Amino acid sequence: MKFSLLISCAPQLSEMHHNALSFAQAVLDSGHTLESVFFWGEGTSTALKTSVSPRDEHDAATLWRDIAALGGTDLNVCIASATRRGILNKSEAKRHDLPDATVASGFNIVGLGALIEAELSADRVVRF
């Protein structure tokens, strides 16, 4: 079965984000496919390159990159939500006269079309 996830909760503010990570790992452990994870709204803060987790907590971006590497999963970030939170790729940073991108490695800043494509190709879409 092919799954896609929609993450709209911030990793540092919600147990739901941890549940999403656990669900994604369970999907892969069960032999299913995790095609796409789409970060939207507050969930886009996962992709902020300058975010630092306390030493006693796991770094959500690293955990998502690990899941993506295991499953060949796209980690997509909504461009509108990301821009509002200062998460920019190189072209957006240049457009806003900023010196560097702020999106963490492994994450792709995309439009809503990527979410629609993920929903159409997946057997199940799960929102956290």
From TrEMBL:
GO cellular component: sulfurtransferase complex
GO biological process: tRNA wobble position uridine thiolation
Highest taxon, organism lineage: Bacteria
Gene3D superfamilies per UniProt: DsrEFH-like
Signal peptide (UniProt feature, chain positions): none
Alphabetical list of InterPro entries matching this protein: DsrEFH-like, Sulphur_relay_DsrE/F-like, Sulphur_relay_TusD/DsrE
Subcellular localization: Cytoplasm
Keyword match Cytoplasm: yes
Keyword set includes Transferase: yes
Pfam families (alphabetical): DsrE
Gene Ontology terms, MF aspect: sulfur carrier activity; sulfurtransferase activity
Keywords (A to Z) from UniProt: Cytoplasm, Transferase
Family: Belongs to the DsrE/TusD family.
Name listed for the protein in its UniProt record: tRNA 2-thiouridine synthesizing protein D
